[in-house]
Amino acid sequence: MRVSLHNGDGAAEESRKILTAVTHGSSKLxxxxxxNGxGAAEESRKILTAVTHGSSKLxxxxxxNGxGAAEESRKILTAVTHGSNKLxxxxxxNGxGAAEESRKILTAVTHGSNKLxxxxxxNGxGAAEESRKILTAVTHGSNKMLKVSLHNGDGAAEESRKILTAVTHGSNKLxxxxxxNGxGAAEESRKILTAVTHGSNKLxxxxxxNGDGAAEESRKILTAVTHGSNKLxxxxxxNGxGAAEESTKILTAVTHGSSKLxPMMLFPKNSxxxxxxxSVYITT
Length: 284
What we know:
Elements: E1 2-5, H1 12-15, E2 18-24, E3 29-35, H2 41-44, E4 46-53, E5 58-64, H3 70-73, E6 75-82, E7 87-93, H4 99-102, E8 104-111, E9 116-122, H5 128-131, E10 133-140, E11 145-151, H6 157-160, E12 162-169, E13 174-180, H7 186-189, E14 191-198, E15 203-209, H8 215-218, E16 221-225, E17 232-238, H9 244-247, E18 250-254, E19 266-267, E20 272-273, E21 280-283
Parallel strand pairs: 14-19
Antiparallel strand pairs: 1-2, 1-21, 2-3, 3-4, 4-5, 5-6, 6-7, 7-8, 8-9, 9-10, 10-11, 11-12, 12-13, 13-14, 14-15, 15-16, 16-17, 17-18, 20-21
């Protein structure tokens, strides 16, 4: 699967946003190489490798941001789900010390038929109650809408106006998410998320253009992987200006069975989706 991202100002060829994913048999290995444009993926060294392990439902993702090996950058995410309580706890080691020291903890729980996902984020300085990083998502019937309100703490979600609204459209299985960061309409801020999943590898790649420039400049990258029956969706967000420690923008969500929290979009094999000034096109 090759995914090109057209950020609008130029052709996808110009932005050179290329994602290549391969899965390998029973090992459930997903390797995603990301070329941020300036050069080949080898040069930018943005490598994500994920492996899941049988019934333990363990997802370990090591991130090499380029300066050195993943061991050197120590960007490690480890996620485990636990039986019927549908709990996902994710500890993040940003390098400076152990996950205990950085205190980057995400806990997510889904609740039956009400389709509610509540995610509390502890950014370290204190409890999640203190940082007040709260995400609440609800899906609504046949329109497949996911509305996510983000409370950044200093005020209500209405005040911060961090709103994500997603709608899927018919047979093209396209999920377009517009983000209004408050200062203006989503059109003005150009906060656009487009996600596509392809075939049995259950890969969801989401790239975020923050508007003021190309993704190369803003370096807003979201990469998510789901695996089999555990319905795990892990999304990590690098805000670019510095390490994740600095940006501390981390989202982790879990969907379970009938909750249908985040519908998966599927492109048929050998299909091609292109369009004028569309956000993505797929070539298989």
